[in-house]
Every structure is written in structure tokens, then in C-alpha cells.
Amino acid sequence: MSKLKTTILTGFLGAGKTTLLNRILSSGSSEHIAVIVNEYGEVGIDGQLVVQTKDEIVELNNGCICCTVRDDLIAAIRSLLASGRPIDRFIIETSGLADPAPVIQSFILDEVLSARLELDAIVTVVDARHISRQLSQEEAVEQISFADVLLLNKIDLEDEYRLIEIERDLTKRNPLARIIRTSSCDVELADILGIGAFDLKNILAIDPNILDEHDHEHDQTIGCVAIRDYEALDPAALNGWLTRLVQEIGTDLFRMKGVLNFAGEARRYVLHGVHMTLEGRPGKIWQPSEARLSEMVFIGRNLDEGGLREGFRSCLAKRHALAS
Ligand SMILES: Nc1nc2c(ncn2[C@@H]2O[C@H](COP(=O)(O)OP(=O)(O)OP(=O)(O)O)[C@@H](O)[C@H]2O)c(=O)[nH]1
């Protein structure tokens, strides 16, 4: 029986991993893809942002795939393999704070994974706008070092001179990886899937100890605040608060994302923030049977949880109705 090809999609917070995953899942291929999506925060937003397809999607939330939910990753893959469902390929989207080394290690050391799956490639999405800032985090450096393919994404936000500078830096950090420039991860799928690029020899050259057991230690100053609220929000108030927030703490606010319930709106509102960049768009229609719940996640350094919660509550529509 031939082994199932597995792609690890990695890249720092907000680089474009889910954008790439959605591109793959929407490609119209007849393959059955088993997808595992790992999110750092206790509220899983990505599950709602991944396109609905025939493919099997398992969410591993509330922890990083390189440490707290690593055993869950192995259990999830084993259970998918045992389920008897048709699977042609695995794709694993790590959280933006994951060190890929322990994930790679699981594929080599776990007897079921190593017997049934073959690592095809590590594809790392790099955010052209934010990468220099992100490289102060060890995880961002490791994600680049272990990549077989580096997608230099968000090229629409930087000029040619800056892109050449980033490419030079990426090549210094990982001379073996192929670099492909993208906007919204518009890569040819043949350049990232089924490419047989993973080579343990290269990985051992970067990290000779990769096969030794070690737990990954995250920077303890980085945390996550998750907010869930059934009360409708006032869009103008939220926009004002978030604009002020990113001006004040944008350097330390690595990632913000939310699926929000705006008062009087038939659709959800999907919000993305990466440092100072904010982007929003209408999402799926609320069905009458659904509870209209806002979910929002903030990931960053030394976050003031009380302040964020109070800021969020100050945007509730009922407060503004009372004030007017
Ligand atoms: N301008 C621009 N924005 C992009 C591009 N690719 C993705 N984005 C935006 O970047 C934000 C983050 O994209 P995601 O695909 O959710 O990033 P991610 O890596 O999955 O994020 P996490 O899972 O939170 O780490 C969204 O607002 C995207 O629309 C791009 O090429 N250019």
C-alpha cells in the first residue's frame, strides 16, 4: 500500500495559511483530502473560515500542535486512518505559533504515522508586510528554516525593492527552499502538492537533535484572549475601538480575528487583524435556527485581558442604544 502524502502548512500568525488552505480545498480536485487545522486560541475561529467541501476537517484548538495538542494530532490522524473514509492526502495547518520541528518528529517517530504517511513537503507562508517584525519570534525563524517551499505572500503590500531584500534574507536563512511570490497565496497547486520535497537529511542538517524528545517552550509573555458574547455589537463603535486599539498596541498585537454579530445585519461579519492591518468583510448569513454569537480572539504580547474585555463590551449595541 503506498503511503499517503502529507503536506504541513505553516507560517506565522496571519501570514495566509487559511487563505492557502481554502484555495486548495476549492480547487475542484476529485481527491479526498483530510485536513487538520490547529489553532492556538481556545475559541476556534478558523473552523468557521475554512470553506465547506466534501473533505474531512478536524480542528485541534486550545493549544499548539507542537506541544499541548501534539498527542491529539497523532490521535486525530490515527482515527481518520481507522475510520475507513476515503483519504488521498493529508494537509495539516499548524497554528501560527507552532515550531514545526516537533510536528515533523511525530511523523518520523510515531509507528502508525511513519508506516502510513509520507511527508511530502513543508510549505511555509511568509507575510511580506510583517516578516521582519515576526522574526524576533523563534517560531517564525524555525518555520522558515524547515520549509521546503516558502510562499512569499502579500506581495501586493510591498514594493519590488523590499521584496528582493526579503528574498535575500529568506535565502540566507534557508538556501534549499524554493521561494514563490504570491498574493492571496495564488500559487499553482502543482508547485506545493505532491512535490516530494521533504528530505530528512536536510532537516537533520538544520537540527541534528530533531529526533530526540523535547517539548517546545513558548514565549510566556505571549498569550491569547478569547471573547464570546451573544449580545449584538454596534459596528461603528467596534470599528472605532479597534482602530484606536491597533494604534495603541498594534506592535504587540500579533493577530486578531473574529466572527461577529452586528445589530440588524443578516450576515456575520468576519474581521482580521495582523498588527496594524485591519480587514473585514461580510460572512455567512445567520440562519433563524442559529444563536447569533460573536467570537473574537486576540493573540499578542502582554495582553491586558480586562481592558480588552471591557473594550469589547463598550461596543455592545445596547450600550449605544441607551446612550443615544
Ligand atoms: N493584502 C493581502 N492580504 C492577504 C493576503 N493573503 C492573505 N491576506 C489577508 O491576511 C489575513 C490573514 O489571512 P489568513 O489566511 O487567515 O492567515 P493565517 O495564516 O491562516 O492566520 P492564523 O491562522 O491566524 O495564523 C486575512 O485578512 C487575509 O485576507 C495577501 O496576499 N495580501
TrEMBL record:
A single Gene Ontology CC term: cytoplasm
Catalytic activity: GTP + H2O = GDP + phosphate + H(+)
GO MF term list: hydrolase activity; nucleotide binding
InterPro entries: CobW-likC_sf (IPR036627), CobW-like_C (IPR011629), CobW/HypB/UreG_nucleotide-bd (IPR003495), P-loop_NTPase (IPR027417), Zinc-reg_GTPase_activator (IPR051316)
Keyword NAD: no
Keyword Chaperone: yes
CobW C-terminal domain ranges (all copies): 222-316
Domain of life of the organism encoding this protein: Bacteria
Entry keywords, A to Z: Chaperone, Hydrolase, Nucleotide-binding, Plasmid
Homology family: Belongs to the SIMIBI class G3E GTPase family. ZNG1 subfamily.
Function according to Swiss-Prot or TrEMBL: Zinc chaperone that directly transfers zinc cofactor to target proteins, thereby activating them. Zinc is transferred from the CXCC motif in the GTPase domain to the zinc binding site in target proteins in a process requiring GTP hydrolysis.
Name this polypeptide is given: G3E family GTPase
Source taxonomy: Bacteria, Pseudomonadati, Pseudomonadota, Alphaproteobacteria, Hyphomicrobiales
